[in-house]
């Protein structure tokens, strides 16, 4: 059974914060943040200085010879020149050829695009995801978050485990974000296809989730919307965390929190629900995932109860995802959103983990139990290293994690990887062009090939900086 899937990179994160600013403040903050990202020269200069100083300090304490250190600093300087030239360019929609539309959301569309020669020789032919957001909708919507708007700073730091924002620009009608294209779709899509994962595959995915969430925390942020749909898969089967936030779509979040508040005060009228049994009967209909409930399946109880929360809320979400990977349904599954919220609030009564078996180790079960725990006792409260040190990850080589192929690389996704390479140089007039684009977007069930990309005619070559 398939649910109506939200296209990756189209919908923003849910906001569970009780202290949301007025709509006018949020609108202004979002536009200000986007413009900062587009024109943030001072921030880029500061970041460049920090990178150079960090490399210099690392080389000074290394065992390299003076000649080797000088060579590395020269190479670094050349790379910085390339980055500087790229950032000084003024991109436009015409610099990117649309190959397919892979999703539509509240704020606009997501295209798979190919950079034209006018974008610069260092990026020409590269395949990206282009998120197009209509300014009139962004300005008028009341579902915006100041905190999310400010998080565009995450795009300034490249990280292996986070979907990268490469460029941002705007015109009179739209805001544009040029991001990594993840040909493997999202983790929810893979769960739909496989139903459950064996423990060995789950452990690899869990380790990559830990690295991704830890990367966000290391930059000083809480993701707040870690869920299978925001965990994207590249063409090699490895994970990256997405939706680091520009705006907020609540999906009845206020009603959900109110229901949890009422339950906490003893005034709930949500009715009684029995603890979920570990059977197929408890398997959540993925079609429901984006109707009323939104992200509540993975919300920590302290988030629902508005008691204040910290980075450990993200670790709860990781625990809930791992539970779903091995059992095939979310740990606090219920027939409706209110029931799910009530179960999460009273998690001690409803969380049921089976005894260890040949298919599920004691270490795996202990890992989930320590994540799905009270905030002040939750694994991860001491930082990411505490999570990585859990016995379930014994034998994981954290330095090489993400190399090679991931646990699942299907033949279609492997074909998508080949298509991505071929499309870098394949002209649109090639007889195999349409088939290559279809192969590239095989993980997106609603993908639509754009014939000829009428929306973006070729632009004049970019001026040299």
Automatic annotation (TrEMBL):
SUPFAM superfamilies named among the record's database cross-references: Protein kinase-like (PK-like)
MF GO annotations: ATP binding; protein serine/threonine kinase activity
Source taxon at top rank: Eukaryota
Broad EC category: transferase
Organism: Cafeteria roenbergensis
Ranges of residues in domain Protein kinase: 96-393
Residues that coordinate or bind ATP: 131
Full protein name: non-specific serine/threonine protein kinase
An annotated GO BP: cytoskeleton organization
């Amino acid at each position: 059974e398939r649910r109506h899937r939200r296209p990756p990179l189209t919908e923003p994160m849910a906001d569970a914060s009780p202290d949301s600013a007025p709509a006018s403040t949020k609108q202004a903050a979002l536009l200000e943040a986007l413009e900062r990202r587009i024109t943030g020269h001072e921030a880029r200069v500061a970041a460049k200085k920090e990178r150079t100083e960090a490399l210099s300090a690392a080389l000074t304490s290394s065992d390299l010879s003076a000649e080797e250190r000088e060579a590395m600093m020269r190479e670094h300087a050349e790379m910085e020149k390339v980055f500087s030239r790229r950032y000084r360019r003024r991109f436009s929609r015409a610099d990117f050829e649309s190959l397919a539309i892979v999703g539509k959301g509240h704020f606009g569309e997501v295209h798979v695009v190919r950079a034209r020669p006018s974008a610069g020789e260092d990026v020409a032919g590269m395949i990206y995801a282009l998120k197009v957001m209509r300014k009139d909708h962004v300005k008028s919507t009341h579902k915006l978050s100041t905190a999310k708007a400010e998080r565009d700073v995450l795009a300034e730091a490249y990280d292996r485990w986070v979907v990268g924002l490469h460029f941002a620009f705007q015109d009179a009608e739209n805001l544009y974000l040029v991001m990594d294209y993840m040909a493997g779709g999202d983790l929810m899509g893979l769960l739909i296809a496989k139903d459950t994962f064996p423990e060995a595959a789950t452990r690899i995915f869990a380790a990559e989730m830990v690295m991704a969430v830890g990367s966000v925390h290391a930059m000083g942020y809480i993701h707040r919307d870690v869920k299978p749909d925001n965990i994207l898969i590249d063409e090699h089967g490895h994970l990256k965390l997405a939706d680091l936030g520009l705006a907020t779509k609540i999906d009845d979040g206020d009603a959900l929190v109110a229901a949890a508040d009422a339950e906490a005060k003893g005034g709930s009228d949500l009715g009684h629900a029995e603890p979920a049994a570990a059977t197929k009967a408890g398997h959540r209909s993925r079609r429901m995932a984006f109707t009323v409930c939104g992200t509540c399946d993975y919300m920590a109880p302290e988030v629902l109860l508005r008691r204040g929360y910290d980075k450990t809320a993200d670790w709860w979400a990781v625990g809930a995802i791992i539970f779903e990977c091995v059992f095939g349904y979310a740990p606090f599954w219920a027939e409706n959103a209110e029931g799910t919220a009530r179960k999460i609030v009273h998690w001690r009564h409803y969380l049921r983990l089976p005894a260890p078996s040949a298919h599920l180790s004691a270490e795996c079960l202990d890992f989930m139990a320590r994540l799905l725990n009270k905030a002040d006792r939750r694994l991860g409260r001491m930082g990411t290293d505490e999570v990585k040190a859990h016995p379930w990850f014994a034998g994981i080589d954290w330095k090489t994690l993400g190399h090679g192929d991931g646990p699942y690389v299907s033949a279609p996704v492997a074909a998508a990887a080949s298509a991505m390479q071929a499309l870098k140089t394949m002209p649109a007039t090639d007889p195999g062009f349409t088939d290559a684009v279809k192969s590239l977007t095989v993980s997106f069930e609603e993908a639509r090939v754009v014939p000829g990309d009428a929306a973006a005619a070729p632009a004049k070559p970019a001026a040299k900086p």
